[in-house]
Specification:
heterotrimer; A mainly alpha (about 300); B alpha/beta (about 250); C mainly alpha (about 300); A: about 300 residues; mainly alpha; two-stranded antiparallel sheet; 12 helices; 2 strands; globular; B: about 250 residues; alpha/beta; about 35% helix; about 25% strand
Amino acid sequence: MSNAIIPLLLDSLASAALIFFAAVGLTLVFSVLRVLNVAHGSLYSIGGYAAASACLFIASQQLNPYLSFAALLLSAVFVAAIFGPLIERSLVRWTYGKSEAVQILITFGLFLILEDLQRLIFGVQSLYEDAPMRLLGTSSIGGVVYLNYQILLVGMAVLVVVGLRLLINHTRLGRLFTAVVTDREMAQSIGIDTNRIFILAFSLGVFLAALGGALSTPTSGIAPGLGADTMVLAFAVAAIGGLGQIEGAAVASLIVGLARVLAIYLAPSLDAVAPYAAMLVVLLIRPYGLFGSVTARRI
Amino acid sequence: MRRAILEAKNLCVAFNGVKAADGASIAIHDGEFLAIIGPNGSGKTTLLNICTGYIRPVSGSVLLDGNDITRLSPRAIARRGVARAFQIPQLFSAQRVIDNMMLALAAKDGLWSAIRPLETAQRRDEAMALLELVGLDGDAERISSTLPEGHRKLLDIAVALALKPRLLLLDEPTSGVSALERFPLMEALMSALRQRRITALFVEHDMDVVARYASRVLVWNAGNIMAEGRPDEVFGNAQVRERVVGVA
Amino acid sequence: MRIILTAAAVLTLAVLPAAAPWLQFVLTLAIAKGFAALGVAVLLRAGLISIGHAMFFAASAYGVAFLAHAGINDLGLLLLLSVLVAALTGAIAGAFLVRYRAIFFAMLNLAVSMVFYALCAKLYGVTGGTDGMPVPIPAVFGIIFAEPVFKSVLFYLSLALMVLVGLAVQRYLDSPLGHALSAVHTNEIRLEYLGIPVWAVLLIAYVISAALAGLGGAISAFAIGRVVPDFAFWTASGHLVLIAVLGGIGGVPGAFIGALFLELLHSAAVTVTDAWNLIVGMTLIIVIMFMPQGIYGLFARKEASSP
């Protein structure tokens, strides 16, 4: 029993970590910009395509395979540096102060565009290069074999939670973020360049999504449709945790991961439905998520 | 003393550590026009929010005709004949003035018709009569967001009247209304209340309005009743003069 | 004036297939999508965006396929029952979803529709997986027509339904319930204080919108002759949102005008490019940014400015 459940648990934790990267980016962008970017999942898959292409290039040129670890990270930076400012300045900025309906429609339009662009550029075949996973190999504890890469993924997720918390609580940029989140008008009036904060926060969100996508390619490859699936999963996780809550997203991705383990045991064909079931249950009980709070309506 | 329509007993509510009600009890009697005055931030609007089910008190209860309505929703309380006009007008701002009125009238009787139009000749006449009463008949076809603030306020009151309530709760009916229109509005309101036998409670800052129209005054301060009685009695109270009338 | 314009438009649509027979299929599909987009537009009135309405479109289409397999072979009965299937699905999903607003409403609709899509695609034994299910040609009042004749019957039936259902929806929107629906968008607090149960207003609208999407799905199932999971895919939902927005928020004829415009554009575009979603996405952004009242809004504004 335990021999079977521990690898499954690690497998679920690793995929929970990947979704966490996407969800925490979504939640961060939402809390600073107050925009839910429906195209967020596409940036995850773009990060995946960038990383897979880079790793395949490294393999085809027979370069040092350890370069592919750098490639995973750099492709996420690359995607964030290009798409972050571009999307924020051209589309998202236009929606500030407009109704949420407009924000949903604009970013949904962007989502359709990005998904089609990926299909046109990378085709409908899936890309797969598992060099980073193979390089790390496996380790065996008490007769159970683990993929080291999966342990790395979980470690990275923990690192991101700690890193974001440190960034927000202990750096100047983090304090600026907090100021904008708490009271945007006040932040503007005391001379904070909110436009710069928005670009930075949005790009950081894109980076986290792209990082998740990049790190996912060695284990599962990348194929069309990943963006949409990720978007909905990331939203499910962000909603369970409470939109705008970083630690909430972490806890929620654990819940989703465990729900998946449970589903694989109880009803294997329904494992894809488990995250949504978890989301529905949580939102029925707490409509604003586990860590979310209701903003009081005023009369 | 006549029978109490609405009673709030031993209310306790706190917001961010500030007590909006601290064990106070109030009662509104059939046919009276009770004014509640008090300094800003003393919890007058909160009191209306509790009486209409918008927020729940920490402890205490609200009774309507002797029945406990403390845990009912604003919707359920509205359906029992308690209407409310707001300090900040709550309108369907994208709709025409007349549609605001007709929807309120329909809420009372024919909401569940999905086939008959909202606008019937009878409903329109009824709506126009109420608009005329508050002096908005000339604005009937305007989109309500385009009305000046004072007129939005009037519309908000007219919408509450359209529910044909037994009890009307008014949150500063004359704030935002120009000084010239203030007394004509109050005259129209009073005649409507008398005609329709509506009991009313109003929170008010304008002491001239209170002195002239209230049948009873209650001074609310820091969650407690500071003084209570006929307007001349209350305004004669030195403490009230200093703490409330002077400030307001 | 409106009546004459509408009659002229419907007549033009009725005679078009005589001039260009290939148009008949395109127009049938356009009307079908118009129904579904009208469903989305009904919810837009309350400021609610559903990016999952293709689910109801598909639920009804699968309903047709299942019922046909079960031996029901009458066009009218199949249409009626499958729309009921969609309405029932809408009632179940709506009971949960109408508690939410804005982002949550949009995203939860998307999530539910993706679960539905996944089930359609994965439950191979039940739904035929990605191969989908065939839809045989049903009898019309006991008569079984040859395929071309049936497709013509379907087209003219859709056209007639467009007018009838369009009028019915217009009546609904003009009724107290319809006004209460728009009022949800502007002021829920006032609605509560009028004693109007917002959830009931929204649930009724949700069921109506699901039924409209279902009618579109059933017509599409007959027109195409096969139902596949892609009916429920989120891109399909996206198209419906675009059509509803194109048609101008709320206008009943707008949904059909938007659908006709988009379907004609689609049949022109597929001959030169397969980047259809790219075009849809760009159009959506351009419409929102530069013509917030949609295509139908352009006509309406001109009408209003002439005395």
